[in-house]
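Ticket #4471: structure export looks truncated?
Reporter: QA, pipeline team
Priority: medium

Steps to reproduce: submit the single chain below to the structure queue and open the exported record.
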Amino acid sequence: MSPEPCTLHQVNAKTTVLTLLDYDPGVWGVPPESVGTVLYQVEGYVDSLQIMSFIIALEDSFNIELPTEVTESDEFTSVGGVIAIVERLSARTDGALG
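Actual output as written to the record:
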């Protein structure tokens, strides 16, 4: 079974999130197709000080608001989770969780 094709919105979300995380497959040792499961903070790609800049950059890049309950959720700990969150929120016209 082949994977479902990605929409342009999904490709842009993934590309932007990976850019904001300064993703480099050579440094991370994870190919792009497997990067969704990476726990970016646990693995040390973003430290406790960088996380605030990352959150602000996500909000600015996608014109969304990330409430504390989202940024402290289990979903927000993986690259794939962050991508899913920004796709969901940026698909809404007001950019807020409802």
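Status: closed, not a bug. The export was complete when the record was re-opened. Leaving a note from the reviewer for reference: Residues 36-92 form one domain.
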